Amino acid sequence: MTKLASALPEGDANGLAALAPDLCQDPHKTHLAIVVLDCKTIVENTDTGAQTPTARIRRIEPITGQDKPLAAQMLRRALEERTGQAVLPIDLEDDLNSLFDSMDLDETAEEDEQ
Questions:
Q1: Which among 21, 26, 60, 78 has most CB atoms closer than 10 A?
Q2: pLDDT score for 81
Q3: What per-residue confidence (pLDDT) applies to 36?
Q4: Confidence at residue 111, expressed as pLDDT on a 0 to 100 scale
C-alpha cells in the first residue's frame, strides 16, 4: 500500500493553479498531468515489518494542447508495462497509429461486407 501526502508543492512547482478555472467550470472533466514525486515518510508496522511509504508531490504540471496525445500514449504504455501487457516499440506504435488515422474505417467495413 502507498499513501499520498495531501499537501501540494508551493510556488512554481504547483502547476495545478493554472487549471483552477477549468476545474471549477467543469469539475467532472479529466485532465492529464505529469507528476514528479518522492517519498516523504515510511511507516513500519513493528509486528509484521510491513512498510507503508507516503509519496510527496514535488512538482505537478498539467499537459495541454498538442502534447496531450503524446502524454496519453505514454500513460497507456506505462500501464501496459506495469500490468505486463504487450508493449510495442514506440516507433512501430506511431507508424500503426498513423496508418489507422489515415484510414476511413467506415469505408473499410463496407468493403468487407461486400
A1: 60
A2: 84
A3: 96
A4: 46
